[in-house]
Amino acid sequence: MPDRFRIHGDNIVECERIVNIILAETNPSRIEISLLSPSTIVYNLSFGYCGFEFWWQLELLPGFNKAGRKRWQRNIFNALKESGSFLDETPDAIVTCVDGDMETILYAIEFCSALQAGNQAWQRSGRAFSTGRTGCPYLYIVDFVKYELDPRTRERIALRFPNPAVPYSYINFSKESGNFVAQIYVRSEEFDKCEDCFLYNFDENDFAEAELRAYIVKRMCGFDTSSEENSILQKNLNVVMFLANLSRPIASLTSSQWKRLYTYQQGIIQFSIENSDFNYHKIVTAKGHHGKSPEFLKLVDGCSVGLASKDLPFGIIPANKRDVFANGIQRIYPEYDSNIIRQIGDTNSDLILCIIKGFKPRGDDNRPDRGILPFVAMLSSTNMEVMTYIYGPVIANNLETLIKAPKRLAHSNGFWKSILALSNYIALDVPVLSGQNEDAQVLLNTSDLKKDYTAIATNNKGLTRNVFSSFPQEFHEDDVDTGIHFIFSHLLSSVCFEGMCNPPGGDWSGLSVLYKDYEVRWLSLPRVSKEINGKRPDHVLELFGVFDKPLLLSIESKEHSFDLEYHVGNGLINYITGLMNYIPNVERKVYPQVEWWHKTEKSVDIDDFEVISAAAYLRASAQPNHIVFQNSNCDMLFIMEPQQYGWKVEIVPNTSKSLKLKSFIKDKMFELKFCNIDIL
Question: Rounded to 5 degrees, what are φ and ψ at 286?
């Protein structure tokens, strides 16, 4: 029997990314790909590794049980939650080992192709913190580097970097938790140190693709991974020092200070108090201020010390300044609870102060701010006292629940949970979103709630639970995307190039086409924009041999046909046409395949392609075809019906070109044996 592993992913793309890492490291002598269920792609591999022979079965289970869904028989996240993962933050993928009727989590992975700058650099810290504290290794894979693009011209504006405190927080959290939690820096398509002076001193040996591949496979083999872990963490430190050299020395720790902090393993709070030559200064625009927040910020300027960097939204009130700080709060906010103010004035320990707007103008969740408190905990420790000051809008019902039943609010709102679970004190000077214009000034002591949440969960199961079925209990858009991906990326791979696959939970990091011996790629795709007047597709597939010119098949996938946007077919084609008005951001030779090169001057002519729009959705509750065509204006439909081990797919053409494509697909599929896909 083969060793059996399962890759639970946010979507099929995340699952396949991990498979590709495994294939690159193991170089299998045999690969067989099939469907175990309509939603579960299976890889069977044979390979030799470190002097041993292996036979593995990899099952890909895309689409978690999120938002109350009961897609799978059980929720893989329960093993993490019962081991101390208390935030509503989940990784992109979890890899498990199945032994008999038991399944054990081996590691979790987060992929990030987004711009790592400003508050975006820590917006996923909640996932690292919450997952890492369970004992589950957590790998955060960062595409380095990324450029901000002009939304009008799609040309580079600036190279953007994360604050060095962000990668250092992973190093510190690994040390504090005794669990491997790390950032993995991998080369992005845009990286070219010869073309950008800011990258000149970056050591390309600090890319950790090789260590990532070895860690993943060795972990699954049951081999020792300490060498890979130490190497990755050392490379994290090297990146910290590189980023520090780009920072303003008068407003952040220097590279030599970061190295000294790491070498002597001193806590960052005490180190900052002894070495920071700058205070904590939160910048808020005049429009962004509310109530007495300008006075509060002025108070902070006079009694704070910068924590790692002046550009971060938190700093330190040293123990010997806490009484001054508390007296200032009492003067500015006489309506605050005086007993809690006295507790804030306790001079027995240092206090971390975090100042955040918190919520968007309409009270919506703000994902970057959601990661600040976990970032603080990873950078320092959950044992540190933390005060969070919020000056952004708060929904009236949330404010009432915050005061009367904060644990209930934390249970119902993931953003509030991150604040309440990791703050000892919460101060608000906020506008209240209600029927009337109101303001609120509230101070709460939430230390008991923080203690409850951060207590280490105890169970005798660890990260092992009973295995559940690989056949989903219900079908959604995830399954439509998996089916489309399997058909075109695997079964029709000899005649098809997958230029983009963007299922739910995916990203819009790029779209590629093969063009004149090159793969050309547009990066940081806009969801919508005035310049690209269209609908970003869920799939872009380039097929060869259907027509004299390559065919671009642009697909919008939904669970239900009635979810399709009005005239989405026009939007799918307009998006591709509009994008091709811009020169691709990067290119590379197809044969032999080489590194990406960004100085492309190859404009792409849409007239060199045929373009067809399509909609894909489940047959259950599907509308009559003529209604779907009338509403969507698509050229063809893929109506998908799950079977025991695969799919029955009805392809409905509405144009002469789409009729020819249907015949082409049917002919190619007829040549395949045992593919578990019936094309009607």
Answer: -60, -40
First to last CA, the chain: 36
Residue 65 has, within 13 A of its CA and on its CB side, a CA count of 14
Task: Kindly give, in sequence order, each residue whose CB lies less than 8 Å from that of residue 171, ignoring residues fewer than 6 positions away.
Answer: 182, 233, 236, 237, 240, 262
Helix 12-26 / helix 477-485 crossing angle, nearest 10 deg: 40
Look at the pTM and tell me if it is higher than 0.90.
yes
Other CB atoms within a 10 A radius of the CB of residue 554 amount to 29
Task: Please name the helix (run of DSSP H) or strand (run of DSSP E) that holds residue 215, with its range, or none.
Answer: helix 209-221
Residue that has been written with the tokens 């004035």 in this structure: 345
Got the DSSP string for 277-340? -S-------TTT--TTHHHHHHHHHHH-EESSBTTSSEEEE-GGGHHHHHHHHHHH-TTS-HHH
- Secondary structure of 325-386 in HEC code, one letter for each residue: HHHHHHHHCCCCCHHHHHHHCCCCCCEEEEEECCCCCCCCCCHHHHCHHHHHHHHCCCCCEE
- 10-residue mean pLDDT profile of the chain (680 residues): values are 92 95 97 94 97 97 87 93 91 96 96 74 91 96 86 80 94 95 94 86 96 98 97 97 89 93 92 92 83 94 93 94 97 96 94 90 71 95 94 92 95 93 96 83 96 79 91 93 95 96 78 93 77 86 97 97 96 94 91 80 90 97 96 98 93 97 93 80
- For residue 191, the SS3 value is coil
Q: Which amino acid is at 569?
A: G
The CA–CA distances, whole Å, from 384 to 325, 378, 423, 453, 592 equal 17, 11, 9, 14, 54
**Amino acid, single-letter form, for residue 144:** F
Strand segments, DSSP code E, in 524-633 are: 539-543, 551-557, 586-589, 610-618
Q: CA-CA-CA-CA torsion for 491, 495, 500, 506, nearest 10 degrees?
A: 10
CA distance 16 to 254: 40
Instruction: Enter the tokens of residue 575.
Output: 């998006």
- Between strands 464-466 and 496-501, the pairing is unpaired
Query: What separation in angstroms does the CA of 312 have from each of 125, 166, 211, 323?
Result: 14, 10, 30, 24
Q: Tokens standing for 277? A: 């030559």
